[in-house]
Predict the structure.
Amino acid sequence: MQVVKTVSEVRSVVAISRDGGERIGCVPTMGALHAGHMSLVVDCRERSDFVVVTIFVNPTQFSPTEDLSEYPRPLEDDLAKCREAGVDLVFTPEVHALYPEGFETYVELESLPLRLEGEQRPTHFRGVSTIVTKLFNIVQPDVACFGQKDYQQQTLIRRMVRDLDMPIEIVVCPTVREADGLALSSRNVYLSDAERRSALSLHASLQLAKDRIQSGETDLVNIRAAMHDLMTAHEHVTLDYATIADANSLEELNTPTSHMVALVAAQVGKTRLIDNMVIEAL
Ligand code: AMP
């Protein structure tokens, strides 16, 4: 496994593989790798001949009040996990390599970034779409894997790839969870034991929405209220949103459609967590 820090090194290593007729796969991450990330690597490995993992805590997707400086960066552990998973190339750039002095070009979607996460984090998705575009331009993968865990993010990336004619297959992989339902997240390390117990309310409220919709209930306003009540009954939980949206447009729904997604976000103690569950009408 090769580990490189510069754009030119990525280009020259990947070029050799591409010239040899290999299919290039890419898994963009911010590191602190866990089994969720590694499931993307496994999937990417199956779909490509040469797997590139990028590890970069992207400053432009954090707001000034967020956890950029505290974000975990266990690089040696991450590299060991990548090596074990058979990754071919890890790209771990420094911030100045991707955002040189005078950087001023961003990729921005018009409406998808405004709702849900965007309401709390107005500049977040501009940072995401910009860094993903840059990583795609650098690696030029044939296929890239993202997690369903970040539902709005994968929706936005698929839309961007379509709108900008990027010749890249986007694969969305299922959310990996702990046995008790908590979605794996690099931010779970911040949770105290008591907060971790309260964090289970995110998954519980999604499950509540799914159960009630699939048992025939059609008043989604009511179900949303029940999701709110379930989550706010737990100490340490400050709710950002708990809602049910159309799975493609992400528009909030009051009555069911055939393909829905329940989405939640909450501050648990000082840690902001998100989760979602796709719900097909029966
Ligand atoms: P991050 O390092 O948080 O930016 O995540 C990198 C990629 O891993 C994104 O595509 C995430 O959606 C994905 N990911 C994060 N957590 C999980 C999880 N629990 N299950 C599956 N994929 C995940």
